Automatic annotation (TrEMBL):
A Pfam family this chain is assigned to: PCMT
Cellular localization per UniProt: Cytoplasm
Family: Belongs to the methyltransferase superfamily. L-isoaspartyl/D-aspartyl protein methyltransferase family.
Name assigned to this protein: Protein-L-isoaspartate O-methyltransferase
Documented EC number(s): 2.1.1.77
Length: 415
């Protein structure tokens, strides 16, 4: 067979860029997250491949994040983020011409989009902890025609004091905490967008300052490489089956590793909730709800191989919500309610001596979820804020530099 000739389209960056921008815009619209005309215009002009030297052209224009560096344990620590995530976060940021912007975590691509959005009268400052990333970002920005972006090499935990205040701060690395510099360096009326990890779940949260704390103005599901430097706080990984099945634990969640490993070898119990969702309905709110409602919570991370071998029912990159109790655990599952596979019912698979009880506990929390995804209110207070100043009834996650509260004031009780 003759070798296939590459088509003109597949090797022309302008065509690939137009196709990528179209796909990003369409896929976000399908998720009910339409992006502004300004963000759409910026997406159509910045040549992404110039920020990915050495990466094949077609790959540079896929919708994937492209990993550029891993640490010694194999965890990805530097990447050019997925264009859909970038576009959604830029939309959350609501950039205006003339704004001064701080980006934490460089690469050049997002900074160029920001430069497009602020125009000639604005300023973009980007800071990265890794000198290799900084050097690459500077080179690529110049090559792509954005030499005015300032790139600094420093720990973004401290912001960039001498160039503050900023109208907008965008954190493009997974943060576990909210250091005070980020709110202190926000100008009056400013906006901070940050992928914040709470019990292992990351949400890109829009914060604005309000009476001495940060109040959310919405959030979206996302995943990010973890922050390094002084604010680094990694999840703990408990292996349940070599590298194939691991439990991710965040904040102060504890687990009986030996007991849980043994539990996985026991037959599973199942429980079903009667709570259903339509095929294309968002249910990331259920994950957040379960993470806060269950006293001991983890995320089950399994490889596709483990799923194929029947060791677990699912594998999902962002991790499956799991209830823990001593040497027993139960993870969230679902089944189609009809052969048309239009609706799905949530359930739980339990393992271990208390498999039945813990699976039942998980589904009772599923039943108490109100079916919405974006109605939790997330607020950040400085560390040391006394309990009586936190919203009554809120769940509290104590970080090193902040106390994060999560509450559902608009929640409709479904029980
Ligand atoms: C996902 S990448 C950033 C992507 C980039 N904004 C783009 O345009 O695609 C995350 C970056 O955050 C950087 N980083 C990690 N911890 C940091 C810290 N404490 N301060 C500043 N940068 C940090 C990493 O070196 C990595 O380059």
């Amino acid at each position: 067979m003759p070798e296939e000739e590459p088509t003109a389209a597949s090797s022309d960056p302008a065509v690939l860029l137009a196709e990528m921008a179209k796909k990003v815009i369409t896929s976000l619209a399908e998720l009910d997250m339409p992006v502004s005309a300004e963000v759409r215009a910026a997406l159509r002009v910045v040549p992404r491949h110039l920020f990915l030297p050495g990466v094949p052209l077609e790959r540079a224009y896929t919708l994937d994040a492209i990993v550029l560096k891993r640490d010694e344990t194999g965890v990805s620590i530097s990447s050019v983020s997925a264009p859909t995530v970038i576009a959604a976060m830029l939309d959350q940021l609501q950039v205006k011409p003339g704004h001064r912007i701080l980006e934490i975590g460089s690469g050049g691509y997002n900074a160029s989009l920001l430069q497009e959005l602020v125009g000639d009268t604005g300023q973009v400052v980007s800071v990265d902890i890794d000198p290799d990333v900084v050097a690459r970002a500077r080179q690529s920005l110049t090559a792509a025609g954005y030499p005015d972006v300032t790139v600094r090499c420093a720990d973004g935990e401290f912001g960039v004091t001498d160039l503050a205040p900023f109208d907008r701060i965008i954190v493009t690395v997974g943060a576990w905490d909210l250091p005070p510099a980020w709110s202190e360096q926000l100008a009056e009326g400013g906006r901070l967008v940050v992928p914040l990890r709470m019990r292992g779940l990351t949400r890109s949260i829009v914060f604005e300052r309000e009476n001495g704390h940060l109040a959310d103005r919405g959030y979206e599901l996302c995943g990010f490489v973890p922050m390094q430097g002084i604010g680094e706080r990694r999840e703990r990984l408990v292996s349940l089956h070599g590298e194939d099945i691991r439990l991710r634990l965040d904040d102060d969640q504890q687990a009986d590793a030996d007991g849980l490993r043994a539990a996985l070898t026991t037959p599973r119990a199942e429980a079903w909730s009667g709570t259903t969702v339509g095929k294309n309905t968002r249910f990331d709110g259920l994950h957040l709800w379960l993470s806060m409602a269950l006293p001991d919570f983890g995320l089950l991370a399994a490889t596709k191989e483990a799923r194929k071998r029947g060791l677990v029912a699912h594998s999902w990159g962002l991790g499956i919500p799991t209830a823990l109790d001593g040497a027993s655990f139960a993870y969230l599952t679902f089944r189609a309610t009809s052969t048309a596979r239009e609706r799905f019912e949530f359930g739980a698979y339990g393992h271990g001596p208390d498999a039945e009880r813990i699976a039942q506990r998980m589904v009772s929390h599923v039943r108490s979820w109100d079916g919405t995804s974006l109605n939790a209110r997330i607020t950040a207070y400085p560390a040391g804020t006394p309990d009586e100043q936190l919203p009554a009834g809120a769940l509290v996650l104590n970080k090193r530099r902040a106390r994060i509260t999560i509450s559902w004031p608009d929640r409709v009780d479904t029980r």
